[in-house]
């Protein structure tokens, strides 16, 4: 996004300098150059979306075997009743004496 932004800003400044675009009487070329920078940044980001998505998809495929992904229950802290029963924790906790 940075090359698009800088490129559009340089082109806009050149157009204002050569008289193709009128400069603002109070602020000069700053508003037009700033707007060109913002639009260039947005276009740069939009042009990179496909590349970024493909990188995340390839990373997702690499991590799927390492315990990541929809099939892996990484948020379970063994606090729900189903997990307690599945791992036999309810009997262990009930047989321990309480401190009170």
UniProtKB/TrEMBL annotation:
<dbReference type="GO" id="GO:0005768">
    <property type="term" value="C:endosome"/>
</dbReference>
<dbReference type="InterPro" id="IPR009764">
    <property type="entry name" value="OCIA_dom"/>
</dbReference>
<protein>
    <submittedName>
        <fullName>OCIA domain containing 2</fullName>
    </submittedName>
</protein>
<dbReference type="GO" id="GO:0005743">
    <property type="term" value="C:mitochondrial inner membrane"/>
</dbReference>
<dbReference type="Pfam" id="PF07051">
    <property type="entry name" value="OCIA"/>
</dbReference>
<feature type="domain" description="OCIA">
    <location>
        <begin position="1"/>
        <end position="61"/>
    </location>
</feature>
<dbReference type="GO" id="GO:0034551">
    <property type="term" value="P:mitochondrial respiratory chain complex III assembly"/>
</dbReference>
<dbReference type="InterPro" id="IPR040187">
    <property type="entry name" value="OCAD1/2"/>
</dbReference>
<dbReference type="GO" id="GO:0016477">
    <property type="term" value="P:cell migration"/>
</dbReference>
């Amino acid at each position: 996004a940075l090359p698009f932004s800088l490129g559009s800003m340089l082109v806009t400044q050149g157009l204002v300098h050569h008289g193709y675009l009128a400069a603002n009487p109070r602020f000069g070329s700053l508003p037009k150059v700033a707007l060109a920078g913002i639009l260039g940044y947005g276009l740069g980001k939009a042009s990179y979306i496909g590349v970024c998505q493909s990188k995340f998809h390839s990373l997702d495929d690499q991590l799927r075997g390492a315990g990541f992904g929809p099939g892996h229950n990484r948020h379970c802290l063994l606090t729900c009743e189903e997990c307690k029963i599945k791992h036999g924790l309810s009997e262990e906790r009930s047989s321990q004496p309480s401190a009170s």
